[in-house]
Amino acid sequence: MEALEGVSKQGIRERIWDYMESRDLADFPRPVHNRIPNFKGSYLACQSIKDLDVFAGTQEVKVDPDKPLEGVRLLALQSKKTLLVPTPRLRTGLFNKITPPPGATKDILRKCATSQGVRNFSVPMGLDSSVLVDLVVVGSVAVSEKGWRIGKGEGYADLEYAMMVSMGAVHKGTPVVTIVHDCQVVDIPEALLEDHDLTVDYIITPTRVIATDCARPKPTGIIWSKVSCEMLTKIPVLRILREQEKRAGKDVALQVEPGSQHPAPSTMRRPRDILQSQAASLGGSHSPLHGVDTQPAATVYVGNLPSNARVRELKRALQELGAVPLRLTWQGPQHRAILHYADSAAAQQAASRLQGLHLGANSLRVALGQ
Where do the RRM domain residues begin and end (predicted)? Predict the structure, then answer.
């Protein structure tokens, strides 16, 4: 595709989306507009990452949930690497760890690599988890050979990387790879780049592998002056990180809202408020198991619930094991639940008692959360 000289990032996005659709380069889901485009040949393009030393030598790989990156997720699982996938729109945390069942066949691994598999075979990872990402793989709408990247416009890949920096999960030497169609490799005017934009070190297309040797620095953390109150409301884990950085003495002043002469007011909440907001954003329900109004401060995630499981069945099992939480957030459609306890010691004790728990034919996955 010829060099693009759009006056805006959105102009470049629209031209690429239109180009891919008009030349039938796109694959399901279509149309590709407002998406990270899944292109014909994306699965084969993903195979080229095996030839990169930065992939072969990794243990923990973070791969975005976009459809064209499905082949990378499968390769990571087949190579027995720890595969981390960001939670959708960061509503329930930062990462899900994909955990295939023991003895999983290649067909099962293929399912684990899909978006449905990410939902069914994953365990949420809290901010206190010991995560050290060796390689970051992101989707793109456009990318230049200099390593400059444009996403679909929502900013989640940039924010996820900044959050990983803040929690110490990546450093400036952690390589970033993107996989795109050849037509998505274009000239991007440097004037369009901002300091929060994530750059890439390698570009993989169906026909070539490009080492960008990008000299532009990657984000060094969350730029709070670009974070709005709305973002904090929608992303509970972002609120937790802000509170941590505030306690560390960092400047966490938020974005000035349009039409306002003052910085956006703090939306920091007490632990109880955060948990209620999480439940609302998840579409789940806080179900008190005690008549006392409490403020739980630690969580345990229970995954791989049977599709026909009922909350009363889980409550009964928790009571039998002596692991009754203060509150329970039921996420039946996602086959999981969040158990809220008074402190980390109670959560750790509950997680220990729940190891090996079965509901029906399913062995439940249990993990400590934030």
Answer: 298-370
Which token pair is 132? 């050290």
- Percent of the chain scored above 70 by pLDDT? 85
Helix axes 271-282, 236-247, angle to 10 degrees: 160
Q: What is the SS3 string spanning 19-85? A: HHHHCCCECCCCCCCCCCCCECCHHHHHHHHHHCHHHHCCCEEEECCCHHHHHHHHHHHHCCCEEEE
Q: Can you tell me whether residue 203 is helix, strand or coil?
A: strand
Q: Minimal CA–CA distance to 127: which of 176, 169, 174, 172? A: 169
Q: What is the pLDDT of residue 228?
A: 84
Q: What is the DSSP string of 278-301?
A: HHHHHT--EEESSSS-----EEEE
Cα 69 from Cα 87, distance rounded (Å)? 15
Distance between CA 28 and CA 67 in Å, rounded? Answer: 8
Q: Using one digit for the tens of pLDDT, what is the confidence trace for 165-215?
A: 988 889 888 999 999 999 999 999 988 999 899 999 999 999 999 999 998
Q: What is the pLDDT of residue 80?
A: 93
Estimate to the nearest angstrom the gap between the alpha carbon of 148 and the chain centroid: 21
Among candidate residues 140, 122, 31, 129, the one with its CA nearest the CA of residue 84: 122
Which of 135, 147, 144, 120 is closest to 64 using CA atoms?
135
Burial class (CB in 10 A: 0-12, 13-18, 19+), 225: middle
Q: CA-CA distance, 149 to 179, in Å (whole number)? A: 11
Residues 184, 139 contacting (CB under 8 angstroms): no
Which of 167, 183, 315 minimizes the C-alpha distance to 237?
167
Go through the chain and tell me how many residues it has: 370
Q: Which burial class, exposed, middle or buried, applies to 320 when counting CB atoms under 10 A from its CB (0-12, 13-18, 19+)? A: exposed
